[in-house]
């Protein structure tokens, strides 16, 4: 532990310029955030002409008829327009909040709120909680019309929306309530650990955040998700039999197998698993069950179980811990730099609480996001390969066509979800955590050909 703190001390010395050099932090944050937004707009403009193509990629030509392809192109075009406008709007809003000192205003307003109840500025945790509430209200209200437009205009136009106005409002209020019930105690505990640990807060906050993530793995599916969707045991039948047999053969610790009413809000479909290492749950969207054959759904689940087999969730958790550690390690340099906060219009009285440093965290996130997408795509390739090779792993010749089944399932999902087929490489690298359908189909064909070739050699 002493070695860790000594290395962190060295890092703080290298970042000491934050507390001494006269840097116009507001200008640099504004410039960087606008740079990211304009780059994202540029990527959309690179992608947009591809929605004018009149035929699908060659590898998909036999799977998409003209009507389905046209619908996919129109949906992509409308989403791109919406993303371009909302991206610029949200950036303009964030920029205005920063320029006109809305963060400092929210902090002062939080102080006045707790003062009304007889608490002074020495109650930093209470003021930070009030600050978070004020900032949430200020930033959330403008996004409500955008969300409503996306749901009731864009998604409705292309046949995906199943959400009623009542359900939309109910979901919004539920999400706010959950954010308050979970977010406020979390923030209070975070700040308490921060204050209690003093300058050696990094490992303690790391432990706290890891514990919180594990708790949420348990709480979300059992407490939070049922507030929005109904999880029902998957009915007896071919799909249930196939899924349980696959889980047993792979020694996947399946505890529950659910069907979720995703069609309640949208006609998009998917499948996933969650849970602790010794107790896993598989969830299949009712839309996926309706749109795909049982053997195709089994192939999708084989892909998902490939993520489990190769420990991808655990690896991503470890990467996230490195990410969090990097942020926390740099944090003290800004914490002890009063001029940094003054650059964002905070007064001398508000120079201590760490809540106010949130604006600087956006700077490295765009770069880190590209790296995480690259890693996620590697995991997707690996899970696809697992599905193709599952016949060898289980000595199950009846699964030799798993790659072909997964290909059919992916095509069905893309047809039903009107997913984009033509994708610019740079746009995909920045935005997509999954390879494109064209890339995945080509890889699946290569995997399957390799398996067939190996089988012939054995004969």
TrEMBL record:
<dbReference type="InterPro" id="IPR027057">
    <property type="entry name" value="CAXX_Prtase_1"/>
</dbReference>
<keyword id="KW-0479">Metal-binding</keyword>
<keyword id="KW-0256">Endoplasmic reticulum</keyword>
<feature type="transmembrane region" description="Helical">
    <location>
        <begin position="175"/>
        <end position="195"/>
    </location>
</feature>
<comment type="similarity">
    <text>Belongs to the peptidase M48A family.</text>
</comment>
<comment type="function">
    <text>Proteolytically removes the C-terminal three residues of farnesylated proteins.</text>
</comment>
<dbReference type="GO" id="GO:0046872">
    <property type="term" value="F:metal ion binding"/>
</dbReference>
<keyword id="KW-0645">Protease</keyword>
<feature type="transmembrane region" description="Helical">
    <location>
        <begin position="201"/>
        <end position="223"/>
    </location>
</feature>
<feature type="domain" description="CAAX prenyl protease 1 N-terminal">
    <location>
        <begin position="47"/>
        <end position="230"/>
    </location>
</feature>
<feature type="active site" description="Proton donor">
    <location>
        <position position="384"/>
    </location>
</feature>
<protein>
    <recommendedName>
        <fullName>CAAX prenyl protease</fullName>
        <ecNumber>3.4.24.84</ecNumber>
    </recommendedName>
</protein>
<feature type="binding site">
    <location>
        <position position="303"/>
    </location>
    <ligand>
        <name>Zn(2+)</name>
    </ligand>
</feature>
<feature type="domain" description="Peptidase M48">
    <location>
        <begin position="233"/>
        <end position="446"/>
    </location>
</feature>
<feature type="transmembrane region" description="Helical">
    <location>
        <begin position="100"/>
        <end position="119"/>
    </location>
</feature>
<keyword id="KW-0472">Membrane</keyword>
<dbReference type="GO" id="GO:0071586">
    <property type="term" value="P:CAAX-box protein processing"/>
</dbReference>
<dbReference type="GO" id="GO:0005789">
    <property type="term" value="C:endoplasmic reticulum membrane"/>
</dbReference>
<dbReference type="Pfam" id="PF01435">
    <property type="entry name" value="Peptidase_M48"/>
</dbReference>
<feature type="active site">
    <location>
        <position position="304"/>
    </location>
</feature>
<dbReference type="InterPro" id="IPR032456">
    <property type="entry name" value="Peptidase_M48_N"/>
</dbReference>
<dbReference type="Pfam" id="PF16491">
    <property type="entry name" value="Peptidase_M48_N"/>
</dbReference>
<feature type="transmembrane region" description="Helical">
    <location>
        <begin position="125"/>
        <end position="154"/>
    </location>
</feature>
<keyword id="KW-0482">Metalloprotease</keyword>
<dbReference type="InterPro" id="IPR001915">
    <property type="entry name" value="Peptidase_M48"/>
</dbReference>
<feature type="binding site">
    <location>
        <position position="380"/>
    </location>
    <ligand>
        <name>Zn(2+)</name>
    </ligand>
</feature>
<dbReference type="GO" id="GO:0004222">
    <property type="term" value="F:metalloendopeptidase activity"/>
</dbReference>
<feature type="binding site">
    <location>
        <position position="307"/>
    </location>
    <ligand>
        <name>Zn(2+)</name>
    </ligand>
</feature>
<keyword id="KW-1133">Transmembrane helix</keyword>
<keyword id="KW-0812">Transmembrane</keyword>
<keyword id="KW-0862">Zinc</keyword>
<keyword id="KW-0378">Hydrolase</keyword>
């Amino acid at each position: 532990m002493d070695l860790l703190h000594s290395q962190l001390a060295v890092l703080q010395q290298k970042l000491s310029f934050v507390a001494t050099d006269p840097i116009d932090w507001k200008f640099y944050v504004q410039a960087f955030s606008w740079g990211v937004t304009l780059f994202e707009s540029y990527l959309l403009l690179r992608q947009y002409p591809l929605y004018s193509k009149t035929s699908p990629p060659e590898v998909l030509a036999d799977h998409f008829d003209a009507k389905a392809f046209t619908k996919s192109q129109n949906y992509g075009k409308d989403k791109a327009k919406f993303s371009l406008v909302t991206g610029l709007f949200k950036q303009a809003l964030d920029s205005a909040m920063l320029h006109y000192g809305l963060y400092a205003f929210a902090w002062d307003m939080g102080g006045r709120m707790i003062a009304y109840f007889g608490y002074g500025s020495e109650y930093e945790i209470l003021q930070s909680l009030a600050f978070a509430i004020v900032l949430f209200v200020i930033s959330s209200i403008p996004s409500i019309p955008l969300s409503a437009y996306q749901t009731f205009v864009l998604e409705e136009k292309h046949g995906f929306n199943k959400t009623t106005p009542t359900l939309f409002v109910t979901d919004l209020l539920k999400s706010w309530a959950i954010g308050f019930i979970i977010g406020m105690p979390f923030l209070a505990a975070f700040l308490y650990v921060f204050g209690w640990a003093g300058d050696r807060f990094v490992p303690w906050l790391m432990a706290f955040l890891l514990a919180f993530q594990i708790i949420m793995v348990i709480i979300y599916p059992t407490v939070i998700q049922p507030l929005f969707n109904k999880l029902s045991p998957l009915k007896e039948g071919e799909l249930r039999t196939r899924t349980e047999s696959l889980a047993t053969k792979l020694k996947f610790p399946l505890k529950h197998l659910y069907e979720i009413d995703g069609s309640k809000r949208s006609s998009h479909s998917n499948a996933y698993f969650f849970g602790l290492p010794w107790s896993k749950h598989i969830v299949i969207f009712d839309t996926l069950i309706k749109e795909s054959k049982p053997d195709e759904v089994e192939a999708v689940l084989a892909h998902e179980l490939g993520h489990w087999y190769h420990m991808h969730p655990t690896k991503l958790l470890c990467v996230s811990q490195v990410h969090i550690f990097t942020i926390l390690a740099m944090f003290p340099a800004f914490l002890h730099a009063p001029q940094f906060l003054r650059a964002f219009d905070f007064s001398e009285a508000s120079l201590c609480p760490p809540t106010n440093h949130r604006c600087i965290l956006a700077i490295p996130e765009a770069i880190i996001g590209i790296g995480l997408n690259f890693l996620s795509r590697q995991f997707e390739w690996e899970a696809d390969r697992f599905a193709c090779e599952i016949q060898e792993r289980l000595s199950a010749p009846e699964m030799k066509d798993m790659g072909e089944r997964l290909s059919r399932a992916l095509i069905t999902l893309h047809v039903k979800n009107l997913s984009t087929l033509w994708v610019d490489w740079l746009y995909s690298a920045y935005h997509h955590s999954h390879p494109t359908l064209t890339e995945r189909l080509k890889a699946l064909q290569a995997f399957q050909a390799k398996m067939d070739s190996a089988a012939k050699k054995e004969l």
